[in-house]
Automatic annotation (TrEMBL):
Keywords: Membrane, Transmembrane, Transmembrane helix
Pfam families: Phage_holin_3_6
UniProt cross-references to InterPro entries, sorted A to Z: Phage_holin_3_6 (IPR009937)
Protein's name according to its UniProt entry: Transporter
Superkingdom, taxonomy of origin: Bacteria
Positions of transmembrane segments: 58-82, 88-110
Length: 141
């Protein structure tokens, strides 16, 4: 005997699975979904970490080379300025200018660092929220 409950998923044939089997299937599928979302989050964080590591390595190499070039530039600026003022005053002026530049760069760096921390897996979080909403909608909550 076929009964119709009014659900759009009703078909003209009965499902031969018992309620226990359906609950078991639901549990298995929910477990599989959670594992898939965890794997997605792990992959997303790993990709971000890999890109951050590569970027940090390149910046470190560039920083070392720039340090040598900057030392030569500072010496050049002090020598050039010492033609107009006393050598100690030329060194002091260049040092103050460098400290002001370092402070400005540090302020910008702190702001940029705050934007990237913490490295959360945004796509995985969105997917989990969509999954929870779909399950709630399916249960009619």
């Amino acid at each position: 005997m076929v009964t119709h409950t009014g659900w759009s998923s009703d078909t003209s044939t009965e499902d031969p699975r018992s309620l226990g089997e359906l609950v078991s299937d639901l549990s298995e599928q929910a477990s599989r979904l959670v594992r898939a979302e965890i794997d997605l989050a792990k992959a997303e964080v790993a990709a971000k970490a890999q890109q951050a590591g590569i970027g940090a390595g390149l910046l470190a190499g560039a920083g070392v080379l720039a340090l040598y070039a900057f030392g030569a530039l500072v010496a050049t600026a002090i020598i050039a300025l010492s033609n107009a003022v006393a050598p100690w005053l030329a060194a002091l002026l260049v040092t103050v200018a460098l400290l002001l530049l370092a402070g400005a760069l540090a302020a910008v760096g702190v702001n940029r660092l705050k934007k990237g921390v913490p490295p959360t897996p945004e796509h995985a979080v969105e997917n989990v929220q969509e999954d929870v909403a779909a399950v709630k909608k399916g249960f009619g909550a």
